[in-house]
Amino acid sequence: MNAVTLLRRLLLALTLALPLVVSAKEAAPASDDPVLEAKVMRISAELRCLVCQNQTIADSHADLAQDLRGQVREMLRQGKSEAQILDYMTQRYGDFVLYRPPVKSTTTLLWYGPAALLIGGVIVLIVVLRRRSKLPDDRFEPDAPDEAEPSDAPAR
């Protein structure tokens, strides 16, 4: 490879990488207090991201999750306890915001629904297999096509 080709490839690579550098965001400033930041992350790990829904706000990079982390940080600076912050978030967003919602009458289906479906599926499987074992073997053999009937297909 000569120097001109190498230089062209380098310029092409830099040109393609330029949009990546330009679109990068600056990291949000974290608290100067590492103890406060640890509390923020511990509480954030208990709250579900309302945008992602399968991540905590500690793990999410969504703008709303960043705002909620900032709100948790500010509430901690105001001297609120973890329970007060979780109660505030639950009042504002409902039990759904909790990554591990409490067992209540309104969340019964959420907690016990998957187990009920699994047990129901196993019961249906057992019933079907028992009924099938009582059937005679000739019920499982494919029927032979009746050769006496003419076929609808034209003869070649």
What's this entry about, in short?
This protein has 156 residues and is an all-alpha fold. It contains five helices and no strands. Helix content is 54%, strand content 0%.
Descriptors:
Helicase, Ruva Protein, domain 3; mainly alpha; 0% strand; 156 residues
Structure description:
This protein has 156 residues and is mostly helical. Among the domains are: 27-97, Cytochrome C biogenesis protein (Helicase, Ruva Protein, domain 3, Orthogonal Bundle), CATH 1.10.8; 105-134. It has 5 helices and no strands. It has helices at residues 3-22, 34-44, 63-77, 82-93, 108-134.
| Secondary-structure-derived class | mainly alpha
Average pLDDT rating: 83
Q: In this structure, how is the largest beta sheet organized? A: none
pLDDT < 50 stretches: none
Give helix and strand order, one letter per element, not per position: HHHHH
Strand content: under 5%
List strands and helices in order, with pairings.
Blueprint: H1 3-22, H2 34-44, H3 63-77, H4 82-93, H5 108-134
Helix pairs in contact: 2-3
